[in-house]
Amino acid sequence: MAASINNSIIFMMVALLSLSNISTSHGARSLLQLPNLPTIPSLPKPTMPQLPNFPVTLPTMNPLPNMPSLPNIPTFSPPPSN
């Protein structure tokens, strides 16, 4: 019983897919038979306004403080072997 239901579902899916392909091919054929669309005219390139001149010199800032030196990490020697 379950096998016949699965087979019928698969058959319905194949039938629907083949019918949808037929309608798609008819739509593509009708599009190919239409006359060509008019071409889009080329538009003139817009001219951009000139940007205003900005001062090139940057304001001076106080210098950053020096970084303090890091302390040395103490090293430990291994214990003497006997």
Automatic annotation (TrEMBL):
Residues 42-61 are annotated as: Disordered. Keywords: Signal. Residues 1-27 form the signal peptide. This is Uncharacterized protein. It comes from Solanum pinnatisectum (tansyleaf nightshade).
